[in-house]
Amino acid sequence: MPAPLVLPEHPDLTPKQAAEETRRALAMRQTFASSVKRRLRVPPADQRAYGQRLQTALDEKDLGALAGEFVILVDRAATVQALFIYFRAMPDEPWQMIGASPVATGRPGEFDHFLTPLGVFEHTPSNMDFRAEGTMNDNGIRGYGARDMRIYDLGWVDGERAWGKGGRSPMRFQMHATDPDRLEPLLGIRHSKGCVRIPASLNAFIDHYGIVDAEYQALVDSGRSMWVLHPGREVTPWAGRFIVVIDSQRKARPAWSPAPGSKARANMPKGGDTAD
After folding, report:
1. What is the pLDDT of residues 57-67, one digit of tens each?
2. What CATH number matches the domain at 15-266, 2.40.440.10, 3.40.50.2300, 3.10.20.90, 3.30.2320.80?
């Protein structure tokens, strides 16, 4: 069984210090907007609603007091397919969104396809990340994306089979880029074997600023050499460690999360949903 998740320790802040931390951390919104090409413009009401969903998911894992670090939230609902980055300085504050992008999660109905697992997942060197080689499979698809894209490995989890009679079995859960030319335009619909596919520019943003690299950076600070980390990264002071997956079960697709158009669907390559 996986080790229980443990709430990281953060220093107590005065209200003035907390306000300054929030101001500085939320400046990452501008960096996100200038760095990430595929962005979703989520209305304030939905930003607050997803912040509350994030809090509920954390509460269920006894992590409700988490604060002072970035957290990644994914909604696997078929009508949404989106990733959000959130922050708050103190546990009694509401979560505030940094930015959002379209993703693709597990598509049911075909052998060896899983529903993307729900829960709170710790991004830790215990399941070491690696980088894409950029090579193509037999269908001419770069399943992990262009060369050097980072694969965020969350380890083996108990996954829900989305074929046959269902049931559960182990699956390797990852978050990674996808083929930039043929599959990235399809983000926004369920299209993976169970992993979370993200835009290349978002992958680079999370990687460069160490958005969920708190445990990796702790090893670097202790003197360890980590080959998977680029030497030129600019690690944020609010690096986190958690990726949270929920299913909002929204019935209708919100206007801010449009599905891929007919042109992108028409160019869907053979085997594109089996790339990961």
Report:
1. 999 999 999 99
2. 2.40.440.10
